[in-house]
Specification:
The complex is a heterodimer of chains A (about 325) and B (about 110). By secondary structure, chain A is mostly helical. Helix content of chain A is about 80%, strand content about 0%. Chain A contains 14 helices and no strands. In chain A, helix 1 crosses helix 14, helix 5 runs antiparallel to helix 7 (about 140-165) and helix 6 packs antiparallel against helix 12 (about 270-280). Chain A is globular and about 55 Å long. The two termini of chain B are about 20 Å apart. The mean pLDDT of chain B is about 85. The radius of gyration of chain B is 15 Å and the shape is globular. Chain B has two helices and six strands. The longest helix of chain B has 15 residues, at about 70-85. Chain B has a single domain (about 5-100), classed as Alpha-Beta Plaits (2-Layer Sandwich). Chain B has helices spanning about 20-25, 70-85; strands at about 5-15, 35-40, 40, 45, 60-70, 90-100. Classes of the chains: A mainly alpha (about 325), B alpha+beta (about 110). The interface of A and B includes residues 39, 44, 295, 299 and 306 of A.
Chain lengths: ~325, ~110
């Protein structure tokens, strides 16, 4: 009972937090037909700055970290990415009126990681001053890439069986390259490298760090507007996508929390790291995943997977999963 | 001034495959093409132009125009693009008769 009370109180505080407030504000603006338009270039720039900040910070702190500790969590991140996709495909195969390849693509997107959700949880962690290992942001690609690759490979194997034709082989390296070249991951990896190899402390303290929260609030506004406008698209596909998108972030996060708990007891993975890993698992890709899936599984309907992820999955991950896993960590550890 | 008859192939399709379409155009032997952002409404939904930020920019549309002075090359481009992409991606293509000034350019 205490746990439930604590969770509800935390949820209430989250609703007042700038992160979620801006997200809901964006939805309201779009719902009321506001003409406010934030240009695309600004959106891209914001994503770039946020991921550079996370990357540089991680890189600067990795210098003094013991990377051997990272092995098990990185392995778990890969396992989570793969298992989420397999569960997703299985769940969609049980549901009626779902086109197979749409199910594969949606599962892949939910296995991949959302840059905006990840930035949001980083801010909450800082506000609550929960410590975590510096290399945790580097787990992002370990979960993101295997999920996308697996979903695309399985979908293509399935489609090939349907056609019995001798299609070209699935280009796995092409998918990996495509994910790494995506705007979110390339900024994160560049930031990590710069933080690790150069001395960016001054530009970090004077530019990236102070801008982070403000930019995140604008990103949340954009995500909110986008979430609302995608709901219409989601309405036109089977309603099961919305159901999956609502419950799966919580289930995926719990799975990651369980594995993180094992890592906590075996290699001393910090509770803060467990929270971040869980939110990563709960999130569904919204920036780099969709174009990769669109080229990898062209016959899948983008309205299904982007609608599910952007209009339901991401708000659930931010509004419910972030407070849920923080409370859970406080209860368990 | 003498004007010469030529063909213009117009392809309106998704930005995400623009690179592949341009490769087809070049492999068919066209010397160049013009590409610009497009928006509108079709059988597969509304597509806005790039004014408002959209989380997935690659799903925007582009219009590609190719001028060739050879009817069969124009047909080849259209047919190859249709076979390669139009089953899974949204797109339309049409041909226009136009007049050009310097035929040696095409």
């Amino acid at each position: 009972m205490d746990f439930l009370y604590d969770f509800l109180m935390r949820l209430l505080t989250q609703f007042q937090s700038p992160t979620l407030g801006f997200l809901i504000g964006g939805m309201l603006l779009a719902a009321m037909g506001s003409k406010l338009a934030i240009p695309d270039a600004i959106y891209k720039f914001i994503v770039f700055v946020l991921l550079m900040k996370i990357g540089i910070k991680g890189g600067m702190e990795i210098r003094d970290a013991n990377l051997a500790e990272m092995l098990l969590p990185a392995f778990f991140a890969m396992v989570i990415g793969v298992v989420i996709v397999l569960i997703g495909i299985f769940v969609f195969s049980l549901l009626p009126s779902i086109k197979k390849e749409d199910g594969y693509a949606t599962a892949g997107l939910f296995g991949a990681v959302s840059a905006s959700t990840f930035a949001a949880v980083m801010v909450v962690m800082e506000e609550e001053s929960i410590p975590y290992e510096a290399w945790v942001p580097a787990l992002y690609p370990f979960m993101d890439i295997p999920a996308l690759v697996l979903a695309i490979v399985l979908a293509n194997i399935y489609l090939k069986k349907q056609k019995e034709g001798n299609e070209t082989k699935v280009d796995v390296w092409g998918i990996v390259k495509d994910s790494l070249q995506g705007s979110a991951l390339s900024a994160l990896l560049l930031g990590l490298a710069l933080g690790l190899l150069t001395m960016p402390d001054r530009v970090f303290d004077s530019f990236y760090e102070p801008l982070f929260r403000g930019f995140l609030s604008i990103l949340m506004l954009i995500m909110g507007m986008e979430a609302y406008s995608r709901i219409n698209e989601l309405r036109r596909v089977a309603h099961w996508y919305a159901v999956y998108a609502f419950f799966s972030p919580i289930a995926h996060g719990l799975l990651a929390f369980g594995l993180g708990y094992i890592a906590h007891h075996t290699v001393g993975f910090s509770p803060g790291g467990v929270i971040l890993l869980s939110v990563m698992a709960a999130s569904s890709s919204d920036i780099s995943g969709p174009p990769t899936l669109r080229s990898g599984i062209p016959s899948a309907n983008p309205s299904a997977y982007i609608g599910a992820s952007t209009s339901v999955g991401t708000p659930v991950a931010i509004a419910i999963c972030i407070p849920l896993f923080i409370v859970l960590a406080q209860a368990v550890f | 001034m003498t004007l010469h008859v030529a063909e213009k192939v117009v392809i309106i399709t998704e930005k995400i495959i623009a690179k592949g379409v341009c490769n087809i155009i070049e492999s068919c032997g066209a010397t160049g093409y013009t590409l610009f952002a497009a928006g509108g409404k079709g059988s597969r939904n509304n597509r806005s132009t790039a004014q408002r930020s959209s989380v997935v920019d690659d799903f925007a549309n582009v219009q590609i125009e190719i001028i060739v002075n050879n009817y069969s090359m124009a047909e080849e481009i259209m047919e190859k693009v249709r076979q390669t992409y139009f089953k899974n991606y949204s797109g339309i293509t049409y041909l226009e008769d136009i007049k050009i000034l310097r035929p040696e350019k095409f």
